[in-house]
Amino acid sequence: MTIEVRKKYLNVGSFLLGFGFLGALDGIIFHQLLQWHSVVLSPDRTIEIISDGIFHFAVTITMIAGAIILWLGGKPTDLSKGIRYVISGLLIGGGTFNLIEGIVNHHILQIHRVRPDAENPLLYDLAFLASGAVLLIAGLLIRKTVPKLVDGKR
């Protein structure tokens, strides 16, 4: 396998793993622990449980796919900037999840808000988007600017 193919596997695998992981955190924290919302808000609790189940299944499959692709890429430390690709990919994937989920579900489709029962639900939605932007920007900065010492190479 060429170096370019391995880099692509590291990038794609870590992106999918980060995307799925942030989705799982969203489901665990906001849907289950805090019970602020479900994927589809409905007076029928069965619909909420089914929509959350489908969501959790999808993010689990995404994490598994990311882990397999990452594994196929081989040991990140064998490549120049390999660790950088993995860390930045995780952050970029997680930030992308928050931005897509926030923009599509909270604003365009309006199927739920982060915390619909809050005094100012828009504030929670904007904070969710801001967290996605911070993760995405951090991932992009790490990919471009972290010194090579992070990768164990000079």
TrEMBL record:
Chain coiled-coil ranges: none
A Pfam short name: DUF2243
Record flagged with keyword Transmembrane helix: yes
Keywords attached to this entry: Membrane, Transmembrane, Transmembrane helix
Segments crossing the lipid bilayer: 12-34, 54-73, 85-109, 121-142
Name of this protein: DUF2243 domain-containing protein
Organism: Thalassorhabdus alkalitolerans
